[in-house]
Amino acid sequence: MQENQLLIAVPTKDHPEHIRYYLSELLPDAKKHHVDVCIYDSSSTEDIKHIVDGWHACGYTNLFYNKQDRNIKFWEKLKDIFVQEKYRYIWLCGDGFVPCLETSIDTLEEEMDKGRDLIGFTTRDDAELYLEVTDPLEMMEKYWDESTCWAPWIVGAKFFTEKLWGGIRERV
Predict the structure, then answer these.
(1) Would you call 108 helix, strand, or coil by DSSP?
(2) Distance (Å, rounded) from C-alpha 96 to C-alpha 21?
(3) pLDDT tens-digit series, residues 54-100
(4) Is the pTM of this model over 0.85?
């Protein structure tokens, strides 16, 4: 994968045991495939920072840490994740979902190279393995149940700017 192509963003709060497991499962493949991982931590302790520091000491330079106020609102946490200019794609994953890069990296790279705005995964048995959906209404009708903000969507970051984010927030 190209540098700065994909960031796996992991918001967490007071779940060091999840993060310890999460990073042990994800980081070796993320490093191998040049994918960055950032922990957005609003915990009340420094436990998660210490875990991240341990991985840094082992040479994982693709792991980043962002300490946030423990009272940060979820919307503001998402803004910190999505409104940036460094990465082409953001994969928002909760600290309980570990993406399996090894099995999905080839497909991800192929779809990213096509310039997709949104790449989604489904667990539906009746879905084709790889399916391009170009009609937003069709996507909503068929795949709405899977379309939560956690884990199944990789989003093209070019759509999130400070101005756009503020406009969306005002309307919501």
Answers:
(1) helix
(2) 9
(3) 999 999 999 999 999 999 988 888 888 988 889 999 998 877 778 88
(4) no
pLDDT exceeds 70 at position 145: no
Beta bridge partners of 119: 154
What is the token pair recorded at 43? 């915990």
35 near 1, Cβ under 8 Å?
Answer: yes
Give the integer Cα–Cα distance in Å for 50 and 46: 6
Kindly give, in sequence order, each residue whose CB lies less than 8 Å from that of residue 42, ignoring residues fewer than 6 positions away. 11, 12, 13, 68, 69, 70, 71, 72, 77
The 10 Å Cβ neighbour count of residue 127 is: 13
CB neighbours of residue 139 within 10 Å: 15
Contact criterion met (CB below 8 Å) for 94 and 102: no
Residue of 153, 165, 143 lying closest to 9 (CA atoms): 153
